[in-house]
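Quick question, first post here. What does this chain look like in 3D?
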Amino acid sequence: MKTTIDREAIYHAIYEIVRLIPKGRVTNYGAVAKAAGLKSGARLVGRAMGNANSVKPPIPVQRVVNSSGILSGDNGYRQKKLKAEGVEVKNNKVVDYKNLFWDPLYEID
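> Answer (accepted):
Ran it through. Tokens below.
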């Protein structure tokens, strides 16, 4: 039996987590999925980020990268936004990713 998911509720939970990422920090799709209670939802987080352009208040999608610190999607836009926050990106990868990584499971108050 297939279960239906409430995509709107899941996206809302994902967006709330992403809004908590501090400026100048990044996290990854898998970490957001875990914090949202999704066992293997990294792709779902990616889809949510892809649909976030018209969400209000805005979602800082630039702060979510892959597990290696590499940007995916519209990298020019995301790189520009990250640079404005003081995050250096070189060859499409966040420089010092390990130290800039923000884990929502441990850093949400």
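The chain is about 45% helix and 5% strand.
The chain has a mean pLDDT of 91.
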